[in-house]
Amino acid sequence: MLLPAGSTGSRSSNGPVRRIPVGWEGFPPAASPWGRALGGKGSGRPRKHWTTREDAERQDALIRSYLEEIAQSGVSPRTLVAYRKDLESFRLFLRSRGKGDPTGGDVDRSLALSYLFDLEQREYRPRSVLRILSSLRSYYHWLCTKGLTATNPFEDLSGPRLPRTVPAILSERDMAALLARVPSGEGWAERRDRAILELFYLTGIRLSEMAHLLRSDLANASGRIRVRGKGNRERMVPLVGQAKETLLRFLEGPGGPPGDPLFPQAPGGAPLSVHQIGRIVRKHVREAGLGDRGVTPHTFRHSCATHLLDHGMDLRKIQELLGHRSLGTTQKYTHVGLAELRRKYDRIRQESPDHDDPNG
């Protein structure tokens, strides 16, 4: 039996499984913030439509053309994968709502609000909803510039608010203890893992940046390493002290071609993926007794920035080191430093026998 794409199964009391397309019943309800934006009414039960092969091929062609065009502007491969995933997800939603043409006039603000509600019902995290909203807003802006649609239904929509969070960090003492527990033996894998962890902490680079490093990115003479960040923007990051020594020790012996990955799975092999690097980090975090602290590769980046700030490095220099486009992104580490300062102050006062002396 032919069924609408995006349908779900439901078993009636009488027997066989019946198929109910996702979100067909009074959608979204007035209780939702996006339902209220629709005037307190659901968008109603859509008519049953079957998207045609021509519709599917046209959507494929549009998405492919869009991704090819933004790829030429320097968008990273990882971002392209995320964009494709977001667009395909919306495409499935359109099919479940009987909309085969993403450029049709019935893909309006009301339908866009319905999709945001659908994401909320499926318990998407607020940050994921914001990313999807950004992807769709950019895609429909592109469709408008190509004259393929008259309006951008996502243009004026705002997503959920993110809670203000302070980045998780490790203290300098905990970080030193963690690195001290990483074996520094003669084994190739041991030297590789130690180089990865020290490079994370002493340069503050991102997980995706670590995974894409090549042997040719290491400039031995200048003691710097070339890093390709978000949007394929390159920056040169200094290798200081122990990080440089550990990395050069790892690279001792016969070297591979310049285009080989800096951190392969095995000598001369394929590069470690972001997931494999994450597992390496978690393994050593557990062995250092910090497994309950929620430490991730990004914790090393946060800790690096905070410790540099604590030691008096200029905020602009930290911005350059981390590859932040906006100084505002870097400024969040000032809040981390102040919070840690308050904790230290409170601890000292509590430990002092005369901390409550009014004459003190």
What would you note in describing this structure?
- With 360 residues, the chain is mainly α.
- The chain folds into two domains: 25-145, no CATH class; 172-351, hpI Integrase, Chain A, CATH 1.10.443.10.
- It is built from 13 helices and five strands.
- It has helices at 33-37, 53-71, 77-96, 109-121, 126-145, 172-181, 188-203, 207-211, 241-250, 274-287, 297-310, 315-322, 327-351, and strands at 7-11, 17-21, 218-219, 224-228, 234-238.
- A three-stranded antiparallel beta sheet has the order 3-4-5, with no helix packed on it. A two-stranded antiparallel sheet has the order 1-2.
- Helix 7 packs antiparallel against helix 9 (241-250).
- The longest helix has 25 residues, at 327-351.
- The protein is elongated.
Could you tell me the strand content as a percent range?
Answer: 5-15%
Biggest sheet, spatial arrangement of strands: 3-4-5
Per DSSP, the total helix count is 13
Secondary-structure-based class equals mainly alpha
Total number of distinct structural domains: 2
Largest sheet: 3 strands, antiparallel
Distance linking N and C termini:
83 Å
Quaternary organisation: single chain
Indicate the CATH class of the largest domain: Mainly Alpha
Percent helix among the residues? 40-55%
Keywords: Chromosome partition, DNA integration, DNA recombination, DNA-binding
Domain Tyr recombinase: 165-346
Region (Disordered): 1-54
Protein name: Site-specific tyrosine recombinase XerD
Write the layout of secondary structure elements.
Blueprint: E1 7-11, E2 17-21, H1 33-37, H2 53-71, H3 77-96, H4 109-121, H5 126-145, H6 172-181, H7 188-203, H8 207-211, E3 218-219, E4 224-228, E5 234-238, H9 241-250, H10 274-287, H11 297-310, H12 315-322, H13 327-351
Antiparallel strand pairs: 1-2, 3-4, 4-5
Helix pairs in contact: 2-3, 3-5, 7-9, 7-11, 11-13, 12-13
GO biological process, one term: chromosome segregation
Keywords: Chromosome partition, DNA integration, DNA recombination, DNA-binding
Region (Disordered): 1-54
